[in-house]
């Protein structure tokens, strides 16, 4: 009888230990971003964004759950820096260089200048921006070279859109000839133009940069390095077994190329 009780006690201890370890490794990870579809879309729709699907798959493999919401990008960075959230998704290094990044990119961003159909202007380097006023989104990074240009030229030649619908505002200003061009991610702009039936009215006018995209974790959260390492481990396997590419194809996207 005493032996049976002892065995039952040992089994109970093992069960408690397993449950305790699971509670440590299984976390709800809070990530914030702005609307950057098809990378990050509304949480209420069936396709929440290619980056969201990739990261959610990774976290599921590690037993975590994803808490994801859309808020303005600048606020997402500021609040994550303070430790309110675990990380931001869809980030370049330049967006938050003090944050914790994984090494393997989730995807790539091709930043492109867009103009009205009929415009003769093409981007061919910084010198081609002389006398050109273009629009960008507040808080975004557009690559080291363009970021420096924006900082040095200010409001006279760069219009900065903010709020919840910055791309909508930039396209409206472009149609009104208030600005000459819009600098935006290729996939994002093409997705938006298709949505508003303007794919033939606004066209590409030159690539400005080609940048890897990441989840950037809070510099003050104790598990940030662990989460970054977990993303690297699973993401490398996803790219080997084809699951990463299948998620891209769900959105009619191909690696580093424009939508079909």
Strand and helix map with partners:
Elements: H1 2-25, E1 28-33, H2 50-61, E2 65-70, H3 73-81, E3 87-91, E4 100-101, E5 107-116, E6 134-137, H4 144-157, E7 158-161, H5 166-175, E8 181-185, H6 186-195, E9 202-217, H7 224-241, H8 243-250
Parallel strand pairs: 1-2, 1-3, 6-7, 6-8
Antiparallel strand pairs: 3-9, 4-9, 5-8, 5-9
Helix pairs in contact: 2-7
Describe the structure.
This protein has 260 residues and is α/β, with parallel strands linked by helices. It folds into 2 domains: 27-108 and 212-250, 3-Layer(aba) Sandwich (D-Maltodextrin-Binding Protein, domain 2), CATH 3.40.190; 109-211, Periplasmic binding protein-like II (D-Maltodextrin-Binding Protein, domain 2, 3-Layer(aba) Sandwich), CATH 3.40.190. It is 40% helix and 22% strand. It has 8 helices and 9 strands. Strands 1, 2, 3, 4, 5, 6, 7, 8 and 9 form a 9-stranded mixed β-sheet that branches. Strand 1, helix 2 (50-61) and strand 2 (65-70) form a beta-alpha-beta unit. 37% of the residues are buried.
Please tag this protein with its features.
D-Maltodextrin-Binding Protein, domain 2; 9 strands; 2 domains; Solute-binding_3/MltF_N; alpha/beta; signal; Solute-binding protein family 3/N-terminal domain-containing protein; 8 helices; 260 residues; 40% helix; globular
